[in-house]
Amino acid sequence: MAARKSSSGSSRSAGRKRPAAKKSACKRSARKSAAKKSNRRRKSSAKKHGLLFKLCFWPFLLLNRLTDKWHPLVKWPARAGGSVGLVVLFCMMLVAMYYYGRALTYDLDKVAEMPARTLVYARDGKSELGRLHGDNRYIVRFDQVSQNFRKALIAREDARFYQHGAVDIRGIGRVMMRFFQRGKKEGASTITMQLARNTFPLGGRTLDRKLLEIAVAFRIERKYKKDEILQHYMNRIFWGHSIRGIEAASR
């Protein structure tokens, strides 16, 4: 009887332990699945962050890969110099985007608009008696100006006018060389840049105005041909005493 009681008691305790073991096994499997899910999330987020890092810093990573097999005495200075150059280039791109965005706010149709004085004619409607208000200006076409004058104007103001775009990089380098050699200040503005500042109120003689002037000049170069730019420039030249344009100055 005692043996039967002990066997029945042990079977009951074993029956109680089985559901507890099942519960603990379920808990363990749940923990494992949760751990696997969290690991997957971490791996996916790590991949996303790694991809974002590569997209943002791919020039630096490319620089490191290109110089990876170089000698350390050459590799590290090259990496340092290249990194500084990339940062400077990135900053220049941001500045260019900022000023070009500001340049988009200007209406380039005003470049071709030449406000002149009000004309007063005689009764016959042909004889001009005079002009009232505004600038003393006579509008001329490109082909109405002598070729010799055009050549002389270009030689004086912008010798490489037909060879460069809005900015003359070679001219800027030449001006800088003369400044460092002789301490002589010279202007490096192209005809297009002068047309930009004579057409729009860009501000005073500051670096901000100069950069904005360059951005507007790039837009003018894209909209107008070289001969058109020179024509508008000749009609806007200021000769003093409210006289603008070569035709008014010649009179």
When the domains are counted, the total is 2
Number of helices: 8
Specify the CATH class of the largest domain.
Mainly Alpha
* Overall pLDDT metric: 76
CATH topology of the largest domain: Penicillin binding protein transpeptidase fold
Unreliable stretches: 1-7, 247-251
Number of DSSP E strands = 5
Assign the structural class, choosing from mainly alpha, mainly beta, alpha/beta, alpha+beta, or little secondary structure: mainly alpha
Morphology: elongated
Main beta sheet? 3 strands, mixed
* Strand line-up in the sheet with most strands: 3-5-4
CATH superfamily heading of the largest domain: Biosynthetic peptidoglycan transglycosylase-like
Radius of gyration: 39 Å
Distance between the termini: 141 Å
Q: What's the CATH architecture of the largest domain?
A: Orthogonal Bundle
How much strand? Answer: 5-15%
Structural summary, described in words:
With 251 residues, this protein is mostly helical. A hairpin with a 6-residue loop joins strand 1 and strand 2. The chain is elongated, with a radius of gyration of 39 Å. The N terminus and C terminus are likely disordered. The chain is built from eight helices and five strands. A three-stranded mixed β-sheet has the order 3-5-4. It has a two-stranded antiparallel sheet with strand order 1-2. It folds into two domains: 52 residues; 142 residues, Biosynthetic peptidoglycan transglycosylase-like (Penicillin binding protein transpeptidase fold).
In short:
By secondary structure, the protein is mainly α. It is built from eight helices and five strands, in the order H-H-E-E-E-H-H-H-H-H-E-E-H.
